[in-house]
Amino acid sequence: MKIGIVGNGLMGSAIAHRLLKRGFEVYLYNRSKERSNALVKEGAIRMEHPVMLGKKCNFVIVSVTDGYAVKQVLFGENGLIHCNNKHLTVVDTSTVLPEDSIYCANSMKKIGYKVIQAPIMGGPDATLKGDVISIVSGNKKIFEKCRKILNNFSKKIIYIGNADGAANYMKLALNLNIALIAISLSESIVFVKKSKVDPAIFLEILNSTYFKTGLSEIKGPKMIKNNFEPKFFLKNMLKDVQLLNECAKNSGTSLSFSSLAEQYYRIAVNRGYSELDYTAILKLFCELNNLAARN
């Protein structure tokens, strides 16, 4: 089966690697060609424009940064909308405003194309192992046709419902939870450091209780060693918290800690931590407390 993938960042590349290993014929498009070099060496085929993927493939996975990028991929001068392939189904894994997903789905469906939303919970490493959770919304019949693709990199697929954009609400809520856990863990580490106690002991105790999280177990040891190799960029976490707060404002929902989280992640971006892992929020709290991140 031929699968197109638009966006060869951390997640898009991981999906492509996984599908290549599973025997799919993978076609790629990314604005920066060099990002797909490794995939091309593995056998993926690079295309010049998104429209070319739509002509070649009946299924195209979109994994880009924001709603503007999704709209460019779909409706730009060389967007998928111009492919004239009435069998085309777009699987949008991007984390974007639900309103953007609804707009894109409605606009594509008017011309006869099919769209579902399928944002992913889990990072690139988990994707390579087929160990992520795909959250899906959109027409159920279309989803069932896409299940055979999603199964190749997902350990679990949760269908939210027929309403376009529903999966995006869920994804934003889940990412907010992660953002707040990272802040909580960071402040605990800072408190322990200021108390002249080894944060490794703090993590050992925490991870021996049922209060532990995947973040404290996997990311925690890296955080106290000042290892912020990006698996999910801090700038993208800021973007997602901003999107959630925008949705909350539109629905009249008051989320006090979400607003504070956005402020702190923005400060971290302004301090130059954009390209680090989102757990580099610890570096900010260390800086605010006159601590070296690895102290």
Secondary-structure topology with pairs:
Layout: E1 2-6, H1 10-21, E2 25-29, H2 37-42, E3 45-46, H3 50-56, E4 59-62, H4 67-75, E5 89-92, H5 98-110, E6 114-117, E7 120-121, H6 124-128, E8 132-137, H7 140-150, E9 154-161, H8 166-194, H9 199-206, H10 214-224, H11 234-251, H12 256-273, H13 281-288
Parallel strand pairs: 1-2, 1-4, 2-3, 4-5, 5-6, 8-9
Antiparallel strand pairs: 7-8
Describe this structure in words.
The structure is a single chain. α7 (140-150) links the parallel β8 (132-137) and β9. This protein is 53% helix and 14% strand. The strands form two sheets. A six-stranded parallel β-sheet has the order 3-2-1-4-5-6, with helices on both faces. α4 runs parallel beside α5 (98-110), α8 (166-194) packs across α10 (214-224) and α9 runs antiparallel to α10 (214-224). The termini are far apart. It has helices at 10-21, 37-42, 50-56, 67-75, 98-110, 124-128, 140-150, 166-194, 199-206, 214-224, 234-251, 256-273, 281-288; strands at 2-6, 25-29, 45-46, 59-62, 89-92, 114-117, 120-121, 132-137, 154-161. By secondary structure, it is an alpha/beta fold. It has two domains: 2-162, Rossmann fold (3-Layer(aba) Sandwich); 169-288, N-(1-d-carboxylethyl)-l-norvaline Dehydrogenase, domain 2 (Orthogonal Bundle).
